[in-house]
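Following up on my earlier thread - several people asked me to post the actual chain instead of describing it. Fair enough. Here it is, all 363 residues.
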Amino acid sequence: MELTGHMAQSQKSNRTSKTAPKAALTIYDVASQAGVSIASVSRVLNGQGSPRAGTRERVMQAVAELGFVPDGAARALSNGLKEVVGVVFRRGDETRFQDEDESLLFMDVINRGIDVAAQRRGFDVLISSVGFSDENVTSRIEAVAGKADGLILHDRMLSAGSITRLSGVVPVVTLAGSPSRGAMNVRCDNEAGMRALVRHLVVDHGYRTIAYVAGRSDSPDNRARARVFEAEARAAGAEIYTGPEWQGDYSAAGGARVVTGLVDTPRRLPRAIVCANDQTALGVMHALARNGIKIPDTVAVTGFDDVPVARHLHPPLTTVRQPMLELGATAFDVLYSRISVGKGEPEVVLPVQLIVRQSCGCP
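Reply from S.P.:
Thanks for posting it. Predicted structure:
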């Protein structure tokens, strides 16, 4: 029996509706449905940070309404994909910092966050490193890109132009960098963190002389923190100590070198020293103690990051806590969205928190 044209068309339509693949859902769809940021979605889905109960409820309701399944999504998208993301970071200079405990560096915690989020999507992580003095860094990063569906680059190890060119070949997310055309950037709120820290030292404690031991001069994080440090300290009427003699490199050895160079001169030390990161603060505190300078009675010291060892120093370190696991997880989620459906915000900024301990002079 032949079907009428209308009935044949109807059955054809039904068959099509049953077999047509649905567009892949991403955290951007969940964020839009819930009316929250993708960072909030990432926090809820990856179990990182402390999202508000209302935010968690909206996200989980959106997940249920959309039928979003994080664990299975990558498998559904695996056709034509390697299901691998590459992560490239800078390692320390082994000839200078071979005694440093690299586990203190926050990139290790970030990489764990990336790995946990990747596993939930069925992806593997290919981790590589480049040294500060390595040649052919671009070609090495391109080699990693050829083995992965996308790249996560710690800090700025390529020029903005190189990142833009690379993003034309493979999706790229930079961590703690600056936004580059074609790529995405995930970072923490350096400005808010440094602003709260300086105000605590100058306004709450009343310290009138304050120094900044800088991180690497080419680091976007360092430049942002230094800029806010100077602006906030000046606005509060404090005397600022900065310059070449205060230039560190994010390492404990670099922080100790700065202090050693200063105590060997007749220069007066500031009442408070703000360090670009916790690793630098560790070296500063060690050098001050070695020279008989009491912390915080004579000089207060603060850091930035809140690495696990910070609370165990003597005295415990006042610092700014960055959500490091969440930073890594969010970087992967943003990259995953670009890989799967081509979506991705140019920059995601995660909140930070001032952690007050004894090194600043608090009880």
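The chain is about 45% helix and 15% strand. That should answer part of your original question.
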